[in-house]
Amino acid sequence: MTTDVRPAQSSTDDAFAAEWADWHARREEELRAPHGWLSLTALHWLDETPAEYPPLPGEWSATPETGVTLSARAEDGVRLDGTLVSGTVRVAPADNAAGALATVGDLRVEIIRRGRSHALRVRDPQAATRTGFTGVPAYAPDPAWVVAGTLTPLPEPREITVDAVVAGLHHRRTAVGTVRFTAAGQEHTLTALAGPDDASLVLHFRDATNGVTTAPNARTLTIPAADADGRVTIDFNRAVNLPCAFTDFATCPLPPAENRLPIAVEAGERNPR
């Protein structure tokens, strides 16, 4: 009889795996939120002709110049930013920003602008993608995918334009510098984007796993901001899918064209579909 003998895992590795598991559990709980990304059920692109979009009541239309127009009766129960709609109202959401919010019962409707187009994004807690959610597949956490890097900041943050998963759409992102690091025996450079706050950076990237074991389009990774010497720590175990990996009703940005790694980053979230 042959016994499979494996080296004992160190307490450091145990702690690393436990910390990752705790982070992964929190990530899945965020996805399970009643009106999170898993709750999307529709994305309706509007034009100048008033139209109905069941089960949403009222008539909706939009033009690039005036924004979105909604005509509804009080008994329809549509609330816009908390105020009951009775008659005709107009909404002018900012491009590439969080939209105005309409509610109808348990449904939440984001009124968004992307370029010169407007859309209604419907969130329903009873969406099959949410009620049937069983978790996000991921590679086993591996400390080898925690790498050191160096940030070279731009003299000034620069707005860049990237494509989107929806053909013809574009997103504006803010580039703040480049991050250089070594992984799989090669040196790589990624454009770093502004994070959600001053204490973080975003690396939005493609690699050789996309469309094989990970989502086809890209993944994204939020890392702590550089220290005073420009040093950063990149933990690819925390690379996550964008909403478009879970739903067809998202308008996710694609990475900057240069953010394509020639290696297979076998760490972080895998393709949930």
From TrEMBL:
InterPro entries: DUF1684 (IPR012467). This is DUF1684 domain-containing protein. It comes from the Bacteria.
